[in-house]
Specification:
12-stranded antiparallel beta barrel
């Protein structure tokens, strides 16, 4: 924890001391609703991400919970290759972003990159593709739509083909020149693997198996972006996931992002 905090402070002081607002940065919109999908050529960002997640299961075995806390991960960079192409590093290339449209009525683009999943007895590898569309209604309001798909190819003895799709839908409101808020829902279809059993515990006919099934869930989200300065953004998001889940599963997720532009 102390090492991670020191790295974060070092990078923060380094960027404060070394960076000045470039001409490209002066032209970059301060308001979230006016921003393009990709960073224009000559602009880059460095981001620190943090996360708190609480999960709870309340089934026939009783209630159990789990907490995940990540105070700060200063490992994310975004590099503009051109006005329409960006690379996301973390710290290796994690994703590519391509801007399709950017005008006064709409902003659209694609994000794609590798994906994977690893368990004790299996692993999977694949890719993730997300289409982002922002329909601008007026000077302060926009609708956002982000369908995504993530197929996974199995590896290992117990791995299976997997596919996850979602279609995040919500609204963005520019509350002021520096603050934007958003809220919506993310319909999600995923493949679940759960333990099931037959017979009586301790008897010879007792048998444990794994069942695969498709599930539709509906997480809700709300967030904000605050342009603290020409070179700094602070954003946060909260997610609640309970609708469509089984076995009393509930997830609360709160995350933040501190982004420096240069």
């Amino acid at each position: 924890m102390q090492i991670q905090f020191r790295v974060f402070i070092f990078l923060l002081l380094l960027s404060l001391g070394a960076c000045t607002a470039a001409p490209k940065l002066e032209d970059y919109p301060l308001r979230e609703i006016d921003r393009p999908f990709t960073l224009p050529e000559g602009l880059a960002t460095w981001s620190t991400l943090g996360l708190y997640q609480y999960e709870e299961v309340d089934d026939s075995f009783g209630k159990t919970s789990n907490e995940t806390i990540i105070p700060a991960l200063p490992l994310f960079w975004r590099q503009s290759l051109s006005d329409d192409w960006n690379l996301v590093w973390a710290p290796i290339p994690l994703a590519a972003m391509f801007q399709i449209r950017n005008d006064k009525k709409a902003v659209t683009g694609l994000t794609f990159g590798p994906a994977g999943k690893c368990c004790s007895d299996s692993w999977s590898i694949g890719f993730h593709v997300e289409y982002s569309h922002r329909q601008i209604l007026n000077d302060t309001t926009a609708l956002e739509f982000q369908p995504a798909i993530q197929p996974l190819i199995p590896g290992g003895e117990k791995a299976v083909w997997d596919l996850q799709t979602s279609a995040s839908t919500g609204a963005l409101y520019q509350a002021s020149d520096r603050v934007a808020v958003r809220a919506g829902l993310t319909p999600l279809v995923r493949r679940d693997r759960r333990l099931a059993w037959n017979g009586t515990l301790g008897s010879s006919d007792f048998n444990i198996r794994t069942d695969d099934s498709w599930r539709f869930v509906l997480p809700l989200y709300a967030g904000f972006t605050w342009a603290a300065g020409r070179q700094w953004d602070f954003s946060g998001q909260a997610i609640w996931q309970r609708i469509g889940e089984t076995q009393g599963y509930t997830r609360w997720n709160a995350s933040y992002s501190l982004t420096h532009y240069w």
